[in-house]
Design a protein that fits this description.
The protein has helices spanning 13-23, 42-49, 65-78, 95-100, 124-133, 168-195, and strands at residues 2-7, 29-36, 54-56, 83-86, 105-109, 137-144, 154-161. The protein has 197 residues and is α/β, with parallel strands linked by helices. The two termini are 14 Å apart. The chain binds 5-O-phosphono-beta-D-ribofuranosylamine.
Length: 197
Amino acid sequence: MKNLVVFASGSGSNFQSIIDAIKDGSLNAIITGFITNKAEAYSLERAKKYDIPNVVINPNNFDSEREYVSTLVSQLQDWNADLLILAGYLKKIPSEVINKYDQRILNIHPSLLPKFGGKGFYGIKVHEAVIASGDTESGCTVHIVTEEYDKGPILGQSKVSVSPSDTVEDLSKKVLIEEHKLFPDTIQTYIQTLKNK
Ligand code: GRF
């Protein structure tokens, strides 16, 4: 059984889909901890509701990057993290953590990477750019986190069609429905591959 530590900055609907997949038995893992950078994030309420150990770690509240990184790493060690799951986490993961958890950090991005990825493409900005481009399809991607934003190996993608009348909200809703299936399914598949290593 793998231990997941989930990171989120927002509402945490993807976090919820992971909680639900574990409950219904389709994802064979335990969430040993939850980290947010925002004390007011609704995702933190979800962690509390399900008695998932949680902490607010805001990089801006540390005197130095070194202090921040060592707090983060010792928390991950306390929770025996096997995999770090970025479910709408808006802070950059420090290089030291990326190296320490090499191939063990997964992120979900609301576009068909490599399209509409990289610095500046987050949240509704992604959907705005997709609509502005006139693309007729979009979707979501789960990938391994590396040092370069949104560039790590792709583990899974799911597509939605974009119609000319779609607003940013319409597209965001359609993509989120796919995210909620893709993320837990991809984590489960990835866990299976880790077992065979
Ligand atoms: C999702 O669209 C995800 O792809 C992106 O951030 C959003 C988080 O949504 N990385 P939620 O907080 O899981 O509802």
